Amino acid sequence: MSSLFAGLHIGQRALQAQQLALEITQRNIANANTPYYARQRVNLIPGEPIGWEGAAPGGGVLALLVDSFRNRFLDCRVTQELQAKGENEAVLSALSQVEPLLNPGESQGLDAAISEFFAGFDALASLPEDMSLRRQVLVRGQELAREFKRVYEGLQSIQSSNDRAVADMVGEINMLTSNIAELNSRIAQAHSLKSGDEFTLRDQRQQLLDRLSELVDTSYYETESGAVTVATVRGTVLLAEDHPYALAAMLQPGTAYNQIMAGGRNITSEIGSGRLGGMLRVRDSIIPAYLTKLDDMAAALVSRVNAQHAVGVDPTGTPGGDFFVPFVPAVPGSTAGAARSMELAITDPSKLAAAEAGAGPGSNANALSLAAIRDERLIGGAATVQQAYSDLVFAAGADSRTARDAIETQGVVLLQLQNQRDSLSSVSLDEEAVNIIRYQKAYEASARFISVLDGLTEEILRLVG
Known about the structure:
This protein is an alpha+beta fold and 465 residues long. 61% of the residues lie in helices and 10% in strands. The chain has nine helices and eleven strands. The strands form four sheets. Strands 3-4-5-6 form a four-stranded antiparallel sheet. The protein has a three-stranded antiparallel sheet with strand order 7-8-9, with helices on one face. Helix 2 runs parallel beside helix 5 (197-215), helix 2 (72-102) packs parallel to helix 6 and helix 6 (274-311) packs antiparallel against helix 7 (365-372).
């Protein structure tokens, strides 16, 4: 009789196991198109023998636990590629604004203004006393100064825009770490209760971890409780299990832009990738390098034109003074701010010193010398002003091309990794359809088994009763 009751218990176990397997299969099918959902499975194992003193031949089947098809190594590799991709996308986004600023089109922009400026002196040399040509030189000088300012202020505007985006990005990072910490707490609780909800929560957390990695360079590891601890690559902890550590973006003494603070420590220089890293690189490295080149050009041009203009004389024989307002650096030896401060020192066309000293009012020697500055290698003794500007335009284009190529390469690698992850984690409707039939048949067989045992039990009870 005990073996009959043991058989009923075995049948009950089988029904429960197959029912759970059917529920998990149904969940997989329902989430076949859910992003980040990793298919789940029930691990079935043989049960302990049931019966008097373990005399029964077997214990049927047990549903040991539910787990999901997720590979931690692939998840980590995906987050690494997302960091690099996010950085280059941020750089490319900023540089896509720089290129039209530096090179707005043919016969426009700073390059054209430099050419027109020196062409004005060439034209003046043909008729050095002509007032309309003299006014033209001053107009082109004003246009040159305006173009230097336009490009400089445009670059600074992109720099400031990235700084504001840095502050916004820090807020989004804090929101993500807070949400991940909350999920950590729920996962740890579900893990301790061996609840099937744990894997749904893990899927949600992985989506947030991928998004976080796209924004800032991170590394993370999982603890025994199922929670994760997340830190930057340089070791600044962003969250430890269910406790997030917020970053802050704020100005610090001696800084013009927001610095990234963690626990009172400035970690700006430690952020290496992700969108935040890309924005910081644009703000603190790429744009400042462009501004420095622009300032070097403006300072060299102002100094050389002023020096040459000063050795000539105007139609009255008065020595020429400064053509541009002299640049006075805030720090000795620095050219910072030269492009932004560029402006004409004279407004009266009769004061232009086109003649050579002592040569008479009809002389054009100094106008020719001023025009010849166009071909002088003023920038480090290696490049003319126009060549230096062409180098700047080329450098910006090369930086854009490098970022674009990197995005394409990372996109291919990322797609391959995501395909590998999907091949493991995604739901196959064909496979799940087979599982439904398999588990349903097993459930029906278990129910039939119980029905037979129930009939036998009733017959025995009838005979002994």
